[in-house]
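Rather than argue in generalities, we reproduce a single protein record, letters for residues, whole numbers for local backbone shapes, just as it appears below:
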Amino acid sequence: MQRPKNPPRGTYDLLPKDSEKWQMVEKLAKDIFQKASFQEIRTPIFEATEIFARAAGETSDIVNKEMYTFEDRSGRSITLRPEGTAGVVRAFLSNGLDRAPKPVKLWYQGPMFRYERSQTGRYRQFTQLGLEQFGSNSPEIEFEMISMAWNLFQKLEIENLTLEINSVGDKESREIYQKAMKEFLNDNLSQICPDCQKRAETNPLRALDCKVPEDQELYQSKAPKIQDYLNEDCKNHQDILLNLFKEFQMPYSLNQSLVRGLDYYTKTVFEIKTSDSKLGVQNTICAGGRYDGLVKELGGPETSAFGWALGMERLITLLNENSNESKLDYFVTYPVGKFNKAYKIVQDLRNQGYSVAVDYENSKDENKQFKIGQKLNAKEIITAN
């Protein structure tokens, strides 16, 4: 077999020079989550296909175009998870967490899989970090969870952040708005893309998530606005949330075209974006919303829920480079026959919490050992005499 040149298209190898950045972000995020009493959950990387099809919606792009689906040896349809929420909801129900005191507050991290064109920070295997809560219908918990993401980005010194928010209404509001959007799309069929022509019949709201620039321009200028169709409950919910952003001076903008790409959302949806040129035009780094009907859709009781996820690869791309900063505190050199003494020093320093390295191949050449310590950019090189 020839030496392999690259990993499969849309995947990558995480090398040691980059893994330290991941560990730093993971540690910081975990600290923020735990201080807010969110607990970790780990779910399988594949589920029965119907879990994702019912959750994301049969007409969503994820289900129609992006899922990695296959039959196992027993003929069961299995799908590699394209997003984290559906699997967490399944675990919430499978393990009886719906009977636990509310709200149930969970966080997760792990690989997801979508068959899509690779772009900056976007891969076919990618990693999501996310929060989910079950049991609270309050806008206050939405504010807390969005604030946690904002706080994480600020601690990571991510610049030029913007928060876009919208309400997609409850079932009652959406049904009325869906009819208005369907009429609008049918009146403009000749001007919209083939995908949106299909959406006019299957799911008119999905058209607002279209990526064709000409369609977006039409929708933003002439399409009915969801805010005009919200009932009093949805309006009050949104007002409380927006007032919290104002009170705590978190800048936001109301984006009435924001619907997200999954069918399970209700009321609040949001995206946090950055104008950093490293990401190109795909500038969303965190997104989510409320999904009060999803637990029931997957066979559980009526349960309020809210969550968000961020893409680790995209976030890591934004971090400032610190390539010259040494991660090694000490490098220990030693004369011929003194390795045992050197290693006792290594163990003592490691027990004190320092990072320490020692050479094993050049026990007869202390000068080579010293040069290795320099190449490793050790903060200090010491000798065991």
